[in-house]
Amino acid sequence: MVAAEDPEHFFAASPPLRDAAVVAASLQEFVARNSHASSDGVGRRRIVCVTSGGTTVPLEQRCVRYIDNFSSGHRGAASTEYFLKAGYAVIFVHRRGSCQPFSRFLPDDSFLHFFDVTTDSKVQVAESQATVVKRAIGDYRKATEGGSLLKLPSLVDTEPNTS
């Protein structure tokens, strides 16, 4: 049995990070952009990392058996929104399928309920959903285009191996 205080062994035995070089470059750029003042007025924001969604821990190298907990990710999505509103830059690490920032007020039904097909066969947002969808899109774009939100899918490949 490996001692709990041996982090090198833990990381050596863990599945590799997905797209490690791309993730590292994205993180470096995000941190640099938000920790230094720039000519466009962006920068010098406090940076937080929010993890959201359930956690899966493999019991073996080829993940057939695993321990998993369920989390919808609503708390992580809400925390991210609150940090952004307070002026923080947020690194949002999320599990596939978990709730995303600015989507938690959208109905849990299929996204197809958000749309209508017009008489001339165009697709548009249903009038009953227009206000909440507009707000979600506006807030999301403000955060992403403003450089204050970096979304990263779970970095470790812990999804069960179905092959």
TrEMBL record:
Pfam families: DFP. SUPFAM superfamilies: CoaB-like. One of its GO terms (molecular function) is ligase activity. Residues 47-144 form the DNA/pantothenate metabolism flavoprotein C-terminal domain. One of its GO terms (biological process) is coenzyme A biosynthetic process. The keyword Metal-binding does not apply. Keywords: Ligase. The keyword Nucleotide-binding does not apply. Coiled coil: none annotated. Belongs to the PPC synthetase family. This is Phosphopantothenate--cysteine ligase 1. It comes from Zea mays.
